[in-house]
Amino acid sequence: MIKVIPTSDKSNTLYSEQFDEHYHSTHGAINESMHIFIKEALLYSSLKKATIFEVGFGTGLNAFLTFIESLKNDLSITYISLEKYPVDIDTSKQLNYADIIAPEYLSEFMKMHSSAWNEQVIINNGFKLIKILDDFNQYELKEKVDIIFFDAFSPDTQPELWSFPNFKKLYNALNDNGILITYSSKGIVKDNLRKAGFVVKRLKGPVGKRHIIRAEKKNI
Ligand SMILES: C[S@@+](CC[C@H](N)C(=O)[O-])C[C@H]1O[C@@H](n2cnc3c(N)ncnc32)[C@H](O)[C@@H]1O
User: Fold this and answer.
1) Do residues 126 and 74 touch, judged by C-beta distance below 8 A?
2) pLDDT of residue 219
3) pTM exceeds 0.90
4) Backbone dihedral angles phi then psi of residue 44, each to the nearest 5 degrees
5) What confidence tier does 196 reach under pLDDT thresholds 50, 70, 90?
6) How far is 107 from 36, CA to CA, in rounded Å?
7) Which of 10, 64, 116, 139 is the most buried (most CB within 10 A)?
8) What are the tens digits of pLDDT across the range 77-88?
9) Is ligand 1 within 6 A of the CB of residue 32?
10) Distance CA 152, CA 181 (A)
11) Chain centroid, CA 32 distance in Å
12) Mutation pick for ligand 1 pocket among 33, 153, 182 (CB with most ligand atoms within 8 Å)
């Protein structure tokens, strides 16, 4: 069972009874995603053309924010997003991200949710979306990517997702100077990222979260 929950910046998030977790911080879903995934990864990379791989499509908030950023900054984005437990269309209609951020792009947000799985969908010239219905634990990336949005449920709830073999798989899929960004700065997460070869940096988190992690693949 999934419930729609308001957060402090008025944007909604979802609560999963199955995992007993919210999809975002209750201190503000948009605020959190903007800080972590847009500011500290997409804008930090300063790439004009990028392939992004996301673990956990969920509400589509990160995809939608990236799409809006691609319009603002004239970016060319291929956005590949993996999901094991898709949000149904009635629930996605209750997510108020387009209303808050850019009501004129509501149809693009809904297209992200209603579009077919496992095929490339053109949202507009600068934004291609490929949603993949699969379990990250057994998924093998076929393409090289520039940025990884690692947005699974927490390492306490899903420790196997945050494991060394999974981070190694992501490290191997990254281009040189590629970035992995995630909201958890737990010790085991940093250790597994370092073991996989990443240079790990702790950054200031959004409201309600002390630290987040940016891990980079440096070509030494
Ligand atoms: C913290 S939520 C965030 C989702 C999304 N990025 C968002 O902003 O709404 C975690 C997501 O990971 C998905 N997930 C959980 N286990 C997974 C797995 N084994 N493989 C792929 N996705 C998974 C969940 O269904 C959920 O959508």
Assistant:
1) yes
2) 72
3) yes
4) -60, -40
5) very high
6) 25
7) 64
8) 999 999 999 999
9) no
10) 11
11) 11
12) 153
User: Closest Cα to atom 22, ligand 1: which residue?
Assistant: 83
Q: Which two tokens stand for residue 175?
A: 């281009």
Domain 28-216 has CATH 3.40.50.150: yes
Residue with tokens 């908030």: 61
Q: Is 70 helix (H, G, I), strand (E, B) or coil?
A: helix
Tokens of 6: 């308001």
Nearest ligand 1 atom to the CA of 87 is: 27
**Ligand 1 centroid to residue 153 C-alpha, Å:** 6
**Ligand 1 centroid, distance to 136 Cα (angstroms):** 9
Tell me which amino acid residue 19 is. F
Place of tokens 């392939």: 51
> What are the extents of the domains in the chain?
28-216
pLDDT of residue 153: 98
Using a 6 Å cutoff on CB, does residue 62 contact ligand 1? yes
